[in-house]
């Protein structure tokens, strides 16, 4: 009987130790992610140079997408903290509206000067407002040559940035870099349901943010077929810099791609 109790006691203690170890590891991951994001923010703000400016961002890359500070939005936060941000413009990010739903909430909560635009208005904005000096985005995956996969719409932002002679900056932790993936051609893109494009979900106009007031509205005929990729791939040749917690990576003079494998070895 004594042995049985001893075994149960040891088992309970072991289980508690395992639970505490998992909790400690999770809390350390949380702290590390916030610290890494803050460094990304500092590196990105420094790369943009001195002076006050406007920037544009896409999707949500802030506290709601990370442990609590953000990647691309971390650069925005760092610029704001340094008094160097005139305004951040952000896209609605159709079809799931991460910009208008999430980024707007973060920026308004922190009272960072901001403005929402339609995805299709980016080129017109860059043409009309020379004070918008850069587009800053996140990345879900970065290939060894610097091609990136990110929220759909990123590729066309990079094209517009190049045409209008603006910086196009990618902010991501170094863990997003996959050196086994030679280029973005190897990235498999998820295609999502038609209803994400043909309908819109939101709170009834004028109501409080109450779960009971959320409705789905059909905006296209039910039989409408769509092409709805979740991400697109932006080629490295359109990217000005990749900002990580380990530093800012740029292409060598005259190069069309990054050499991330060698650059990471040097750090």
Summarize the helices and strands and which ones pair or pack:
Layout (H helix, E strand, L loop, with lengths): L1 H46 L5 E5 L14 H10 L3 E7 L6 H12 L4 E4 L4 H7 L3 E6 L3 E3 L4 E4 L2 H10 L3 E5 L5 E2 L16 H4 E5 L10 E5 L12 E4 L6 E4 L2 E3 L10 H6 L2
Parallel strand pairs: 1-2, 1-4, 2-3, 4-7, 5-8, 7-12
Antiparallel strand pairs: 5-6, 6-11, 9-10, 12-13
* SSE order: HEHEHEHEEEHEEHEEEEEH
Mean pLDDT equals: 93
Measured on Cα atoms, how large is the radius of gyration? 22 Å
Shape: globular
Please state how the strands of the largest beta sheet are arranged side by side: 3-2-1-4-7-12-13
What separation lies between the terminal Cα atoms? 59 Å
**Binned strand content:** 15-25%
Helical element count?
A: 7
Number of strands: 13
């Amino acid at each position: 009987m004594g042995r049985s109790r001893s075994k149960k006691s040891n088992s309970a203690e072991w289980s508690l130790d395992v639970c505490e170890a998992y909790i400690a590891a999770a809390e350390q991951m949380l702290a590390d992610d916030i610290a890494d994001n803050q460094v990304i923010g500092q590196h990105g703000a420094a790369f943009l140079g001195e002076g006050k400016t406007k920037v544009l961002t896409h999707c949500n890359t802030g506290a709601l997408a990370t442990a609590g500070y953000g990647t691309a939005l971390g650069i925005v936060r760092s610029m704001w903290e340094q008094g160097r941000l005139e305004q951040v413009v952000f896209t609605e990010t159709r079809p799931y509206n991460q910009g208008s739903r999430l980024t707007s909430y973060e920026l308004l909560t922190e009272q960072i000067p901001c403005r929402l635009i339609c995805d299709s208005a980016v080129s017109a904005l860059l043409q009309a407002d020379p004070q918008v000096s850069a587009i800053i985005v996140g990345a879900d995956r970065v290939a060894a040559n610097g091609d990136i996969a990110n929220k759909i719409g990123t590729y066309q932002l990079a094209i517009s940035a190049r045409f209008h002679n603006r910086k196009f900056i990618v902010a991501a932790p170094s863990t997003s870099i996959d050196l086994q993936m030679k280029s973005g051609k190897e990235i498999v893109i998820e295609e999502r349901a038609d209803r994400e494009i043909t309908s819109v979900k939101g709170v009834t106009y004028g109501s409080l943010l109450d779960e009971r007031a959320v409705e789905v509205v059909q905006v296209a005929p039910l039989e409408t077929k769509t092409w709805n990729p979740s991400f697109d791939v932006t080629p490295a040749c359109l990217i000005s810099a990749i900002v990580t917690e380990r530093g800012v990576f740029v292409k060598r003079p005259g190069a069309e791609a990054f050499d991330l494998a060698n650059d990471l070895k040097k750090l």
